[in-house]
Predict the structure.
Amino acid sequence: SLLKEKHPSSAGIREETLLYGPIVSQDSSYMDGIDGDMIMRAAKFTSGAAGPTTTDADFFKHILIHKNFKGEGQSLRSEIASFARHIATSYVDPKILEPYLNSRLIPLNKCPGVRPIGIGETFRRIVGKAIAWTLKLDIQETAGPLQVCTGLKSGSEAAVHFVREQFEME
């Protein structure tokens, strides 16, 4: 019940938050770089707990990369890449994506109190990495200097060190 207090029922859609106009479709060739090899790399870099389906990162690494699943793993990586390309370049009804977007809510004891933590599906994290890697330069260009983490390893830490150095110089 404490988690329900922290996470009330979702509110309705506010009209002012919606975008209207034509849906600009992305040229599907833009995502051609997402292939089985990229999915394998994304799986290697994915870590963490399991979402609602209880399949964690280690499970996906095992079935996508392990030599015991050589043919099946390669085929599954190709199918996941195809899914990633599809959702990145085509309109998909949000109702169809609900299971993909679900998260598991767990309580984190903060003594006193509870902090709700949502854990998304590992599959979504793998697909998200592949899409983000493909869009990396576009994300950096669009975010500009406002987001120090786009494309920089430890970008936030570098920003903190820079600011600290500036204050120490004054």
In short: The chain has eight helices and two strands.
